[in-house]
Amino acid sequence: MRLFAISDLHLDYAANREWLQQLSRHEYNDDVLILAGDVSDRLALLDEAFGTLTKRFSAVLFVPGNHDLWTTRERMHSSFEKLDAVSAAADEHGVRRDIFRAGDLAIIPLLGWYDYSFGAADDYLKAAWADYRACQWPGHDDVALTRFFTERNPTPSTPLLQHAGQIITFSHFLPRIDLMPERIPDKHRKIYPVLGTTVLDKQLRALGSSMHVYGHSHVNRRVMLDGVTYINNAFGYPSEAHFTTRELVQVL
């Protein structure tokens, strides 16, 4: 068994859908895929992705990203309703949203959002960031929403994690802001407050994770920090093809 990872497929773009459909139907049949969110805000395209990938991999492991929970094009009342619909689509195709065990290996999905532990949102970000308009979370601000998601994540005492010799975790959102390289220009750092939460890093370390796969930033890298290997393999938008790999990455 090999383990591959990808995130941010953004299937709203035809070129991205074409790449998905050309994936080999035979090469990955014994392998597992981590799909770390932002497939599409359209349920029909999400359903297409789940159907395509489960025909190619022995298991597909998924966490939703922020784009997956947008409500505008589906005309749903809330992003909680959208989350239920996304979860139902995953379950219908056998896409895994729970802990995956293979021998002594455990792969753990971690839900999250952003709580401004990476910085405060200024007026520019509040006007520019689409989530503020495309998501609807009645009764929850972003801090409460982060708590809503992260409190649902497994803990070290979860029975399925007993006797695990190797633990890999994955999330859509970043668990620490220093995963962003120093070369990022100041003008692009304005989005840092909405990239993730430090709660995720505390959780993955409490779980004993040696590797963490994440998405969201569209800045692909593999780096070890404080004993954990962090990997981002975002497919990204067609306009980002000059700096994203736009291919599966084998992580194990």
Automatic annotation (TrEMBL):
<dbReference type="InterPro" id="IPR052963">
    <property type="entry name" value="Pantetheine_PDE"/>
</dbReference>
<dbReference type="InterPro" id="IPR004843">
    <property type="entry name" value="Calcineurin-like_PHP"/>
</dbReference>
<dbReference type="InterPro" id="IPR029052">
    <property type="entry name" value="Metallo-depent_PP-like"/>
</dbReference>
<dbReference type="Pfam" id="PF00149">
    <property type="entry name" value="Metallophos"/>
</dbReference>
<protein>
    <recommendedName>
        <fullName>Calcineurin-like phosphoesterase domain-containing protein</fullName>
    </recommendedName>
</protein>
<feature type="domain" description="Calcineurin-like phosphoesterase">
    <location>
        <begin position="1"/>
        <end position="219"/>
    </location>
</feature>
